[in-house]
Specification:
Two copies of one chain form a homodimer. Chain A contains eight helices and eight strands; from the N terminus they run αβααβαβαββαβαββα. Chain A has 210 residues and is α/β, with parallel strands linked by helices. The radius of gyration of chain A is 20 Å and the shape is globular. The structure holds a DNA duplex (24 and 24 nucleotides).
Chain lengths: 210, 210
DNA sequence: TAGATTGTTAATCGATTAACAATC
DNA sequence: TAGATTGTTAATCGATTAACAATC
């Protein structure tokens, strides 16, 4: 386990590994990089190299000890503490994210949603929705660090600026636009429309090939 | 405009360009790659190279003609015809995708959702939800080609197999797992939990840096 | 031992960036 | 003309893969 710069791609593969290793039956003691690679459709050398970066090492002939590997990856990803977050833009996507319970496992605790539409009070599962005007005060009081932006494209930059003014350090951006932020703010873009377009184009290419 | 293999990364940047160019005021006649790059936080040479692949070319000193560029990118992405799709797994994420209206712009027309839970009848906006048992017949009758998979991890591979058996060619997979599919089926993975983890790790790295 | 595996070093590949010529 | 821009060719960079030595 070396401590150097970790490429983002690797960072995104780690949860996949973790998820896979955890999904193995309890009885599994050992798991080799080769097996994992085959199951996940990746190169075995890449898996081995990735694991070398985060784990305390495997055993020749046996592979990695399942339990240790889980502990190592979890330790590396350091997910124990939940980070509080808010969702800005309580449209369909925003409400879905508010209500989705799965993010807790990845260390995200979404406290509330914010929207321009003041008639919204809470999501169907009861998460509160406040007017955007209350954002700054709420974020400062609760020391919120992460904002999930799910507003329409046109409002995204302004919303982002507002969030940063409210003290946010990290933005998970679902608007299909590049946000300009100060150097110390981290942005992760999620562009579903672009993914979808890529899928359709691949489908079309496949078609032409046959 | 050359016709060769188009890397997926470029494919995912094109909608971003298109979106940006479309967002410019009507009065804008020309737009240079340099301007676009600055606005989008990308390298200008990359933008120019990307555009060279899909457009009929710009004019020295002026840049690209806005209208032509829109037409070229749209023409290249070829989004006119909507592809019909189904969502399998009508949990929160599934319902959000079912109800989200924005995918039409990217050429996706989601007809219906499917779920194991037979008590679900339709989403809050009225999209129908059918039992999974009806999937195959529905897909074949409507010539569905794209399945959006939003079931829990454990059920994802089985669901995917089912969809392929029903004649699907393309899978938009939201389950954090690698799906095994025949060679002629296209898969686009969307792993929100992994993105989120990457965001949190970057935030942490940022912290240590200051 | 023989076979399976790790982990490292070198090679390859692909994508991004730099440099620059062309030209309006 | 001078400046801004395109578009191409070469260089760089980073990530993946191949080859292989080590070893249990």
């Amino acid at each position: 386990m070396e401590s150097e710069r970790i490429p983002k791609k690797l960072l995104m593969r780690l949860p996949v590994y973790l998820n896979y290793v955890k999904s193995l039956p309890e009885s599994t003691q050992n798991i080799s990089a080769t097996q994992m690679a085959k199951a996940l459709g990746l190169g075995d050398v890449m898996v081995r190299k990735d694991l070398a970066k985060v784990s305390s090492g495997g055993r020749r002939k046996l592979g990695y000890i399942r339990e240790n590997l889980i502990a190592d990856i979890e330790g590396f990803l350091d997910v124990p503490v939940c980070t509080d977050a808010v969702v800005i833009g309580a449209g369909r996507m925003g409400q879905a994210l508010l209500d989705y319970e799965g993010f807790g496992k990845s260390g995200l605790n979404i406290l509330a949603g914010f929207d321009l539409n003041e008639t919204l009070q809470h999501t169907s599962s009861g998460k509160p929705i406040y007017p955007v005007a209350a954002l700054k005060e709420f974020c400062q009081r609760n020391h919120i660090r992460i904002a999930v932006i799910t507003v329409p494209v046109g409002a995204a930059q302004a919303t982002c600026d507002l969030a940063i003014e409210a003290g946010i350090d990290a933005v998970w951006n679902f608007a299909p636009i590049h946000l300009r932020v100060p150097g110390d703010v981290v942005v992760q873009n999620e562009n579903l429309a672009a993914s979808l377009t890529a899928l359709r184009m691949q489908l079309q290419a496949e078609e032409r090939r046959t």
